[in-house]
Amino acid sequence: MQSVVIVDDEEIPRLIAEKALKEKYGVRCYEDARTALSELSETRPDILLVDLHMPDMDGYAILNAVRQLEDPSLSSIPVVIMTSDDDSDNEVKGFDLGAYDYIRKPLLPDVLIRRVDRIMKREEMLKHLEKKSEIDLLTGLLNRSACVQQINENLQMRRDSGLLLMLDLDNFKMVNDCFGHEMGDRVIARVADILKKLVRSDDVLGRIGGDEFVIFYRGLWSREALRERCDDICHKVKWGIEELLGISPGKEFGISIGIALAPQHGKEFLGLYQRADDAMYKVKSEGKGGHAVYEEYCEMEEEESSIISIAELQDRIEKQDFSGAYEVDYEDFFAVYTVFLKRVGERVHSPVQIVLFTIKRSGKCGSTRCGRAYAFLRRAFKQNYPKRRRHGSLWK
Q: Between 357 and 209, where is the model more confident?
């Protein structure tokens, strides 16, 4: 049942309001404003009716105190001021402080009921719209912004410890390419249904974009319990995708999981997400279809030299299913850099270097000799980065 809290130091208006509303709503009355505020986290009303003129703490002070509360579910409670004043300046002041509405005294029961009914219906509609804006339409899970908000509330307001899992489907592009985008959507929905059965009511589960999901498990977990849960997720997701696609078990499809611990690896979503992403990248680079916890190896990589060999760079590219090289013009080169090389650098915490070779025409170098030099460099790059599939050389 929806509820109303009435705060008025005068007994008669308080009794009139209570009698008018109690048949339809749960009603709690207070003659002292400070007591009403101290019990607000317990009563949690849908509407707060407050008299403007009271000793010690008037309606403006109550309104201001409510709006300053840290709990957003309390600070956003609609506050309606009851007053016999006709001064428009008082109304302006109240609205500036965040008052929802004014009700004139003496209170008329029929008018009061209709006014409260209207506010209740409007708040229900707003909550429904707000809830819809937090939901990913394809899966019914929380979307990215709602995930971030709820996880940060757990970490910062409740001071929770827990685990942040970043989950990324393996070779999902292959599903769209080979089976079509409609099947890709069905795979995403199937994975969401599987994950829903592997979280508790007070955990946070959401889809943060594309084929990426995130889970925040509250509380302390042993390493053994964590390993068993991640193994269970990997097995059930892999089986569910293969069953939906109607294919035999293989290594193509599954899920990779990166894990960060709170508060050890971060006390807010972004820090935990970045570390879980690092751990997930480790899983992807070692063959996909598994899980890893962000550990000291990530910190050690930050201390390594940023200079790497051509062979190591080529090895990293091959592990990203980006084998071979491209032959592109200067503008396209930077597009490739932005979407691939820069992301690799961010994930391994190491700067990415661009090597730019330029052939300059000198007074002794005619167009024929410059053309030969150009052809020589082109052959050299192709020998070091032979064509694979449809790729050419990445150079200028």
A: 209
Helices (H), the chain: 11-21, 33-38, 40-43, 59-67, 72-75, 88-97, 109-133, 144-152, 172-179, 181-196, 223-245, 269-285, 296-303, 310-319, 330-336, 342-347, 367-384
- Which residue's structure tokens are 């916890």? 293
Give, as one character, the DSSP assignment of residue 194: H
Q: Is 330 exposed, middle or buried (0-12, 13-18, 19+ CB in 10 A)?
A: exposed
Name the nearest CA neighbour of 189 among 252, 143, 241: 241
Which amino acid type is present at position 178?
C
Q: Give the containing element (helix H, strand E) for 167.
A: strand 162-170
- How many Å apart are CA 41 and CA 323, to the nearest integer? 59
3-state secondary structure of 3: strand
Distance CA 368, CA 210 (A): 51
Contact 121, 128 (CB under 8 A): no
Rounded Cα distance, 299 and 61, in Å: 50
Residue range 24-58, pLDDT digits in tens: 999 999 999 999 999 999 999 999 999 998 988 88
The crossing angle, in degrees rounded to 10, of helices 88-97 and 59-67 is: 20
Residue 164 CA, chain-centre distance (Å), reads 11
Q: In terms of pLDDT, which residue wins out, 3 or 71?
A: 3
The pLDDT assigned to 72 comes to 81
Asked whether the beta carbons of 276 and 260 are under 8 A apart, the reply is yes
Span between the terminal Cα atoms of the chain, in Å: 71
Q: What angle do CA 209, 215, 216 make, to 5 degrees?
A: 130
> What residue type is assigned to position 56 of the chain?
D
DSSP strand pairing (101-104 vs 291-293): unpaired
Residue 159: its pLDDT value, please? 72
